[in-house]
Design brief:
With 298 residues, the protein is mainly beta. Helices cover 7% and strands 37% of the residues.
C-alpha cells in the first residue's frame, strides 16, 4: 500500500492517498464530511483501513460541507491499527457493530465523544484518554484483551452495561485513578479477569447490579482507595451481582450507600497446609490430594 504523509500537530502521519481509496472508503469519507451515519451492513465489501479513519479524524482529507464532520460508522471491518495516540479529535466518533483486527491505540488522546457500541476489539489501549462527554462501551461491546483506561478522564458517564470483557487470568479492565464526572453504569457487565478501579474517583454512582466478575485466583474487583460521591450498587436489581474472586474495598470512600443485598461473593480462602504437597493453596474446596489434610471449606 502506497502512503502519503500528513503533517499535523508537530506529528507526521501516514494515510492512504485519495486516489487509492476503495469505493467503500469513499462512501465513509462522504458520510464523514456530511456528519451522516454510514451503514455498511448491506455492502459486499465492508473493509475500511484504519489509516483512512485516522486520516479523516486528523483532517488529512478534504471533505464536503455539512453541519460538521463526524465519524458515524456501522458494521465496518476495520483493518490495521486505529492510532490516535496523543491526538486532539474534534469530530464525534460513534462506531457501532464494527470489528477491529488490531487493538486501537487512544493513549493520551482527547476526544469530544466516543461510542463503541456493539464493537468487537482485541483490547483497548487508552491510558490518559480524555473524553469530554460519555464514553460508551455498551451494549454488546466485546473485548478479548485488556481495556486499559488507567489515569483517564471521562467528563460524562462511563457506560459499560452489557459489555463483555474477556482476559481470563489477567486484567479485563484497568481503570486505576480514572476520573469520571458522572457515573459508571455497568449493569449486567461480564468480565473474565480482574476489574481494577483502584484510586478511581467517580462524581456520581457506580452501578454493578447484575454484573458477573470472574477472576477466581485473584481480585475480581480491586477498588482500594476508590472514591464515589454517590452509591455503590452491587445488588440483585436487574440480575444478581456475582463476584468469583476477591472483592477489595479497603480505604474506599462511598458518599452514599454501598448495597450488596442479594449479591453472591465467591472469594477464595486459604486452606490449612496440605500434608501431601506441604503447601498452602487458595481453594474453595477441600484438599483433593490422597493424603489430604481434611480441611473443608463450605
Amino acid at each position: 500500500m502506497r502512503v502519503s504523509r500528513f503533517w499535523s500537530d508537530t506529528r507526521v502521519d501516514e494515510f492512504v492517498p485519495v486516489a487509492e481509496l476503495t469505493e467503500t472508503e469513499r462512501a465513509v469519507r462522504a458520510a464523514f464530511g456530511a456528519g451522516e451515519r454510514c451503514n455498511l451492513a448491506t455492502r459486499s465489501d465492508r473493509k475500511v483501513r484504519a489509516a483512512v479513519l485516522s486520516g479523516l479524524l486528523a483532517g488529512a482529507y478534504p471533505v464536503g460541507g455539512g453541519l460538521g464532520p463526524a465519524l458515524r460508522l456501522d458494521h465496518a471491518m476495520i483493518t490495521g491499527r486505529l492510532d490516535l495516540e496523543g491526538r486532539t479529535v474534534d469530530p464525534v466518533v460513534s462506531l457501532r457493530w464494527c470489528t477491529f483486527d488490531q487493538t486501537p491505540r487512544l493513549t493520551m488522546a482527547r476526544l469530544v465523544g466516543l461510542s463503541l457500541r456493539g464493537c468487537h476489539v482485541p483490547g483497548l489501549r487508552a491510558r490518559n484518554l480524555r473524553v469530554a462527554s460519555d464514553l460508551v462501551l455498551e451494549p454488546g461491546f466485546t473485548s478479548t484483551g485488556t481495556v486499559d483506561l488507567t489515569d483517564g478522564t471521562v467528563e460524562g458517564t462511563l457506560r459499560l452495561s452489557g459489555a463483555v470483557l474477556r482476559r481470563p487470568g489477567g486484567e479485563a479492565l484497568l481503570a486505576a485513578r480514572l476520573r469520571v464526572s458522572g457515573s459508571i453504569t455497568a449493569v449486567a457487565l461480564r468480565a473474565e479477569g480482574e476489574v481494577r478501579l483502584r484510586g478511581a474517583n467517580v462524581g456520581g454512582s457506580i452501578y454493578l447490579s447484575g454484573a458477573e466478575l470472574r477472576h477466581p485466583d485473584g481480585h475480581a474487583l480491586e477498588s482500594a482507595g476508590l472514591v464515589v460521591a454517590g452509591n455503590l450498587m452491587c445488588d440483585a436489581r436487574g440480575g444478581r451481582f456475582h463476584a468469583a474472586g476477591r472483592v477489595v474495598l479497603s480505604g474506599a470512600r462511598i458518599g452514599g450507600d454501598a448495597v450488596l443485598s442479594g449479591a453472591r461473593l465467591d472469594s477464595p480462602v486459604p486452606t490449612a497446609r496440605c500434608w501431601s504437597c506441604r503447601t498452602a493453596r487458595w481453594t474453595t474446596r477441600s484438599c483433593s490430594t490422597p493424603r489430604g489434610c481434611g480441611w473443608t471449606v463450605t
